Amino acid sequence: MVYFWNQEAEVADNPYLNPYAEAGEEISSTYEGRHVLVQEVVLIHADPGDELVDKGQPVAFWEGVGIALQSAQSIADNIPIDTEGIWRVSVVGTANIKIGQSLFINTSGVVTDDPTDAMAVFGYALQVITVGNGPVTATIAVKVHWMALNWIWLFWWLIYGQEP
Questions:
Q1: Domain total for the chain?
Q2: 3-class SS at 161?
C-alpha cells in the first residue's frame, strides 16, 4: 500500500504560498473550495502512456481524491483537481456494485469496489454494475467525494467483507 507520506515531493513552487495573504481570504478558483491545485508529480493516476495525468482522469493525492481538470505537460505542472461532483468514471467491479456503494482508488489509479489496495475512498456509485464470472469495467456515474477516513473503510471491509 502507498501511504500519502510516501508520495513524491513537489518539484516546483506551491501555488498556495503567499507571504502577503491574510486570514479569511478566499483562494479557491470557484469560490466553493472544491478545486485544488496539485503538482502532477504528486498525483496517483492510471498511466495513459506518457506517465502524465490526462484531463478527466480520476486521481489520488495525499489523502485526497478528485478528477483532473487539465492534462499535464510535465511533472512540475500544477493540475486543477475537482474534489467533488458527479462524474462519469471508468470503474472496475470485482463484485456486483449497488447504487450508493463506496468506491476506492487504488495505488495504480484505478477506481474499483475492492479496497484491498486502496489509496483512498473515491466516492459512491450512482449506477449498478453487474459482475458475472470475473471483473467488469464499466463507465458509470460516480459521486466523487474527498474524505480522509480511509482506514475506517478498510477495517469495515476486512471485518464485514462484501455483501453477497
A1: 1
A2: coil
Q: Which of 112, 109, 155 is nearest to 131 (CA)?
A: 112
**CA–CA separation, 6 and 2 (whole Å):** 7
Q: Is pLDDT of 55 > 90?
A: yes
pTM attached to this predicted model: 0.78
The phi, psi pair for 25, rounded to 5°, reads -80, 130
Cell numbers representing residue 87 in the block: 462524474
Domain that holds residue 40: 4-160
Q: What is the pLDDT of residue 3?
A: 46
